[in-house]
Write a structure and sequence with these properties.
Layout lengths: L1 E5 L5 H10 L5 E4 L2 E5 L2 H10 L5 E10 L3 H10 L2 H4 L8 E6 L6 H19 L14 E6 L2 E7 L21 H9 L9 E3 L6 H10 L20 H13 L3 H4 L5 E5 L2 H13 L6 E5 L13 E4 L10 H17 L4 E6 L4 H5 L5 E7 L2 E8 L10
Parallel strand pairs: 5-6, 8-9, 8-11, 9-10, 11-12
Antiparallel strand pairs: 1-3, 1-4, 2-3, 4-7, 6-7, 12-14, 13-14
This protein binds S-adenosylmethionine.
Length: 380
């Protein structure tokens, strides 16, 4: 089967690298998506293990459609009975960009009708009760090319199952994970998020280094599909659990989260507890302006407040001044800062060693990376 893993714009290479580490070699990267060939077993393995991807989809077919007749006929031509059983529930979602077919409700209705007709013939039945497992269909039309896909994830993969609570502007877990992946932080180096909010960056960083499978604590819409019997999904979950290195890595970790807001820290503590890392991350109320550390070669990974949503201009000026101080006071540390402020380098009077364009939904942000010196090699 052709499998798509959707990603936030800018994270494609991070996900591609993850897939290579998982042993997948024949992968193609496009804007917001990775494509590979695989089986249902792969579908489940990807759902459980991919850290920075958003969703795992099965591509059923792709064709050009500029009229509803074409959309209907081509959809009906696809082998839906191979994917969806006679009792499968079939919600249909539609997206259209720059295409002749732009009425989403009509696209949904026509695709649904075509699938139903095909399934009736394919399963030799006159009724489809839709009382069984859900097979959510997505029709996405881009420049008149329609892609018909089945979602296997259900909730987006950023929902790990541990974050029941969030602060004012929480990052998606997938993006926080990617920030850690794109940094030089390793378990032997101290890690601080001085404006940690609900703790997402720190929790994801810890789980990532401990090789805790991001999907281990949640379910997927494909749980219960006939193609994925329970013993198969359980063995994939066990295989992921066997890679868990929590016990070895846990004692090495030195992670602190600070925030000026006492309430949000309660949320962060609760999240860390639910994620199983409460004993690892030390949270404390502290103004970024008071940040200090005697430790060397640490990493700061953070996303400071910016813009209308939270924080006012003078508070943000103070935060920028705190960045300038922290960089002076902690010369061996590396700083990783995600912000939508395009003027950030000027504000803190330092040019980033690397800058990477990422997206939070449709908002363009930059991930500024300021490298400290490499830590000295430890003698064995
Ligand atoms: C964009 S949010 C961070 C969100 C966080 N990454 C998460 O996933 O929840 C920015 C945080 O900075 C905190 N903050 C604002 N000014 C601060 C300051 N001077 N010192 C420390 N924290 C501050 C806010 O309370 C807020 O929680």
């Amino acid at each position: 089967m052709r499998i798509f893993i959707t990603t936030a714009f800018g994270l494609e290479a991070v996900v591609a690298r993850e897939l290579e580490k998982m042993g997948y070699s024949d992968i193609a990267t496009e804007n917001g998506r990775i494509t590979l060939n695989g089986s249902y077993e792969d579908v489940y393995r990807l759902n459980v293990n991919v850290s920075a991807g958003e969703r795992v989809l099965i591509c059923v077919g792709e064709f050009r459609a500029t009229s509803f007749d074409q959309l209907f006929d081509n959809t009906k031509h696809l082998p839906w009975e191979y994917y969806i059983p006679a009792n499968g529930a079939i919600p249909v979602d539609a997206k259209s960009v720059n295409s002749a077919l732009f009425s989403l409700s009509d696209c949904q209705r026509i695709v649904k009708k075509a699938i139903v007709e095909r399934l009736k013939t394919g399963h030799s039945t006159s009724t489809l009760p839709e009382t069984g497992p859900r097979y959510p269909v997505i029709v996405s039309i881009h420049n008149d090319i329609a892609q018909l896909m089945i979602d296997t994830s259900g909730d987006g993969l950023h929902k790990r199952g541990w974050r029941a609570h969030a602060g004012d502007a929480p990052l998606k877990e997938t993006l926080a994970n990617a920030m850690a992946a794109l940094s030089f932080w390793r378990p032997e180096r101290p890690l601080i998020d001085p404006m940690c909010g609900s703790g997402t960056i720190l929790i994801e960083s810890a789980l990532r280094e401990m090789h805790v499978a991001p999907g281990h604590a949640r379910s997927f819409v494909c749980d219960g599909w006939k193609q994925l019997p329970f013993d198969l999904t359980e063995s994939i979950r066990r295989e992921a659990a066997a890679k868990d290195r929590s016990e070895q890595i846990r004692p090495m970790l030195d992670i602190c989260g600070y925030d000026i807001d006492r309430r949000v820290l309660e949320t962060a503590r609760r999240n860390a507890k639910d994620a199983g890392v409460a004993d690892i991350i030390h949270f404390q109320q502290r103004d970024f302006a008071e940040l200090s550390s005697k430790k060397q070669y640490g990493c700061i990974i953070t996303n400071p407040p910016y813009g209308e949503r939270i924080g006012d201009k003078s508070a943000i000026k103070k935060i920028y001044s705190a960045f300038r101080n922290a960089m002076k006071e902690l010369p061996t540390w590396s700083f990783y800062v995600l912000t939508a402020d395009e003027n950030f380098e000027n504000e803190i009077c330092r040019k980033a060693d690397k800058k990477r364009k990422l997206y939070i939904g449709r908002i363009k942000v930059d991930y500024y990376q300021f490298y400290g010196p490499r830590p000295p090699k430890k003698d064995n």
